[in-house]
């Protein structure tokens, strides 16, 4: 059996590793280049589509710029479709050593935020992380590409897959899927053809539906992005910008709040002559409505009235925490709305079945396109769990 994996992020890297280590011939085709993890920020693509969205196009994908957050999202949502991810979550937590970081990795800003939130009456939890504390020297650069390679990225799995014989092809955009008599036969990159018995799309919630559209499938609807803003202000010399970000979390029904620094805040605080080391912030991330759409030529994702209400509620709570922490209320600002976790554009029960197969035999989708709704929280562990489950299905098919 010959398997082609399109994309090399959390889904692509995982499924390639699982299949190759079990003796299946795997080829990973990646649109972007292979880079050093610490240079991932150079591969960001930022688009304003109503909400600002961003991703990195390179080998390893957006895993290179995650904050290392290990949450088990949407488990109940997938159970409604007959998918129990608990066995895969247990595997992942062991393999990635998902755990809370030691107190030495909590900076003064994060500690102050946690104490202030608890004093107001909110329940604060430490964020589970897939970061090696023995390698991590907190520097605030997780979202740019870890200089110490201290956090898990899919590069770990890709390198392992390569040792098991997987072929890695970079700088090669897939432009079409080859289908004949209801069965997938491979993919094309412009005029170059790559034949395969099975194709697994893991190119993300924008490129995956566009490829499905080319073979006549009604993909690209119901885009969500886990819309977020960062609310922040000035707390002199707190040096929050050098801390490990999102090291704590406050959970609400429709959003989460966590410590978060962004240089956008520094720019927004220009009138106060803000320095990076004086700025502290809280991210408010909502479960946004799947109101977006991906077409062959366009991406549209506007905030709905409900989305704005959630952001306003979360921002008010974040502001109260920051004021309790000592931030001058006159300096508090909010960034514009941004999107972090794109998904929903080829959702389960719509375009894929419980085995993540499309109506085309041998054509599967493994990325966040298949999520039935927005997680409103970091989805990396769930994507890996789904990819592990998909790999098990493919291996059963090969017997």
UniProtKB/TrEMBL annotation:
Transmembrane segments: none annotated. InterPro entries: 4Fe4S_Fe-S-bd, FAD/NAD-bd_sf, GMC_OxRdtase_N, GMC_OxRtase_C. Gene3D superfamilies: FAD/NAD(P)-binding domain. Keywords: FAD, Flavoprotein, Oxidoreductase. Coiled coil: none annotated. The keyword DNA damage does not apply. One of its GO terms (molecular function) is flavin adenine dinucleotide binding. Residues 127-156 form the 4Fe-4S ferredoxin-type domain. The keyword Flavoprotein applies. Belongs to the GMC oxidoreductase family. This is FAD dependent oxidoreductase. It comes from Methanobacterium lacus (strain AL-21).
